[in-house]
Structure formats: C-alpha cells, structure tokens
Design brief:
Serine Threonine Protein Phosphatase 5, Tetratricopeptide repeat, 19 helices
Length: 392
C-alpha cells in the first residue's frame, strides 16, 4: 500500500510542469524539438523500448559525443537503465548506472539552466530526472532520499514553463499532472492536504492530453502509451487498454513488460487461442535468458499455459506448467499470490484423481499455510486435509 502511494506521489511530482512567464528562447536551440536529432534518435529510442539496450545506448553515445553538455543523451541513457528495472522492480543491479546517468543529466541541465537564463528545456530535464530518481528511491523504501528528490523536482517544476505550443513533449508532464492530481485524492483521501499547495487537476483533460502525446509526440510517446495502458482500466476503458497493450506488444515484441501485460489482457479477455503462442514465446525467452524475461513473467506465462492445457485436456502439459508456476513463484518468494495458490490447487486435484493422496495433502498444506482463513482455497484445503487425515 505504502509503495503504491509513494510511487503515485512521485509520478505526480515528476509530471507537474507549471506555467510561468519566463524568457522565450530560440526553438532551434532546443534538442527536444530538433527534427534532425529526432531522426537520428529514432532507432535508438525504438531499440530502447524493444529491449535492445546495447544498440540503443550506442545511438545515445553518439548523441553524447555530439552534445556533451546537454542533458538529453544522459537522460536517455538513464531511461534505458530504468527500463531494465521495470520488468522486475525488486532487482537492484541496474540502480547504480540509472542513478549515475540521471545525476549527470541533472548536472548538465543545471549548467544549461544557469547559462541560458532559466532555460525551460533544462528545467524540464531537472524535474524529470529528479522525479525518476524519486520513483526509484520510493521503490527501495529510501524515504529520506525520495523526499529530497521530490523537493528538488518541485523546485524545478515551479520554475518551468508550459511549452506545449512549442513542443508536445512538454504536454506529457502536464497531462500526467492533470490526471493524477485529481486521481490521487479520489483514491487516497488522506493525501488531499498535500495537494492543497498545488493547482487543481483535471482528470478528463489529463487523459485527453496523454492521448494526444501518445499520438503525436516523439520522446514521450511510448511513455504516454505505457501510462494510458495502465490508466484505461481505472477509467472503465478495458477495450482501449487491450488495444494499447496489443499495439505496444506488437510494436516492441521483445519488451518483457509489454509482452507480459498483453498476455494478462488476453487471459482476462478469455482469448486462449491467441494467448497460447504468446505465453510459449515468453517461456522460450525466459529459458534463453533474454533481457527482462525472468521469474515474474515466468509465473504468469506458466500459469496461463497450465490453464490452457487443463481446459484442452492435456493433463501432462498442464501439470508441467503448473509446477513451473510454483517454481517461479517460490524463487521470487511470491507466496501470497493467487497464481501460486491456484496452481497448487490444480496439482492437488490431479494428485487426488490419480490416487496420490499424500501428494495432494502436501499441496493443500502449502495452500493452507499461505492463504488467509477466509480464502476459498484455504477452506478447500482445510476440508480436504480433515477428510483425508488418516489417508496417505
């Protein structure tokens, strides 16, 4: 609960770019709006989101050599390392590089900000880099560091300018702010006092802004699509969430997070025919150690395949994938999730039908241990163990 609240708060901090009357600058000097730079970066940005990180970072390295004093290349390198973290937020091996690149982006942005009379593009990078740092620190429960990063993000967001007329990239932050500034107090009422210090949000307007960014932006396009994919279910727009997840998966088929999310949407929609090859591909990429494909994706894919093969009557295949669901879950210590419990329940059913009461009891003992008393599977396990107490 606390993790969700802090993450939401720092998304809110990162995204708030307030309008003030600051000096205009020549748009040619802004890399965010430089079409030639966008063309050069296209391959790198696409590779980043398709988890071809080495190729992406090679492109960003070129940008860094050409513009060594601009925050953009360092921010993109940081973003690349952020997406290495996204599939499993608990893995910390990319933290140091991510933070180093964001810190360098901040240093370069500060120089640009001071040199060019409070350059609004520099303020954008300062707010964004501090905001991303705050998100990671909150995930790591480093609350003091998260608060410090948040305060700095606030400092620069208040100095930034609404440049949506110059670059749609700036509209991304405003859209996120408008949406979450209204969403947060509606869902977490005790955070309302925090929002008294900021302008009111507009959830509907924020959603419209994010959709425009998702359609027309360059650097923030995919980030906006990512947020929309997760926002649409809250807005009771499940078909839109499904279509966005499908688009992101098909556009970036090697992005482990998009792959997993699309598979979950297919499962929710009951489209088992489409889901089977998608889930098998996830398992194949996990077994071949593809970047981003790890136990969380494996738990989902295995459970989905177990479910599919159980329905199809392929008992051995179903058992194989339910067992892998358990293995993946136990490896990441995700023992309170329904996938783990239901996989064990199905294996207990198979064991009981085969006359292997001892094995069925082992599964039910684990279910009983890792579920709450009011859980339907806890009750099923308790009843089975009582009924078969003297059997083995």
């Amino acid at each position: 609960m606390k993790k969700i609240l802090f993450l939401s708060f720092f998304i809110f901090i990162f995204s708030h770019i307030q309008a003030q009357q600051l000096p205009e600058m020549d748009s040619v000097d802004m890399l965010l709006t430089n079409m030639a730079i966008q063309i050069e970066c296209t391959a790198g940005v696409n590779d980043l989101y398709n988890f071809k990180f080495s190729r992406a970072e090679s492109q960003f390295g070129w940008l860094r050599r050409k513009y060594p004093n601009h925050p953009l290349p360092y921010f993109l390198m940081g973003l690349s390392n952020w997406w290495k973290i996204v599939p499993n937020i608990d893995i910390e091996k990319y933290d140091a590089k991510f933070l180093a690149y964001m810190d360098t982006s901040i240093t370069k942005a500060e120089g640009l900000y001071d040199k060019n009379n409070k350059n609004p593009e520099a303020a954008f990078f300062l707010a964004a880099a501090y905001g991303f740092k705050g998100r990671l620190f909150a995930e790591r429960k480093q609350w003091t560091k998260a608060t410090f990063a948040g305060k700095n993000a606030i400092k620069y967001m208040e100095k930034a300018i609404d440049k949506s007329d110059l670059s749609i990239e700036f509209l991304f932050g405003d859209g996120l702010y408008n949406y979450f500034a209204e969403w947060i107090p509606q869902n977490y009422k005790f955070l309302k006092p925090v929002l008294w210090f900021f302008r009111k949000g507009d959830r509907k307007k924020g959603l419209e802004q994010l959709e425009k960014v998702a359609s027309d932006a360059f650097y923030t396009k995919t980030e906006a699509q990512y947020f929309l994919m997760r926002i649409y279910p809250d807005e009771k727009m499940i078909p839109k969430a499904f279509e966005m997840s499908k688009y992101l998966y098909r556009t970036f088929p090697d992005n482990a997070y998009f792959h997993r999310y699309y598979a979950r949407m297919l499962y929710t929609n009951g489209d088992m025919r489409e889901l089977e090859p998608i889930a098998l591909d996830m398992i194949s990429k996990i077994d071949s150690s593809r970047v981003g494909y790890e136990e969380i994706s494996g738990r989902y894919a295995s459970f989905f395949l177990g479910h599919i093969y159980r329905i199809q009557g392929h008992k051995d295949k179903a058992k194989q994938y339910y067992q892998r669901t358990i293995q993946f879950s136990e490896k990441i210590k995700s023992l309170d999730a329904g996938y783990y419990h239901y996989a064990m329940a199905e294996l207990a059913h198979y064991a009981d039908s085969e006359g292997n009461i001892s094995l069925a009891k082992q599964y039910y003992e684990k279910i009983k241990e890792h579920t709450e008393k009011d859980n339907i599977l806890h009750k099923e396990a308790k009843e089975y163990l009582k009924k078969n107490k003297k059997r083995s």
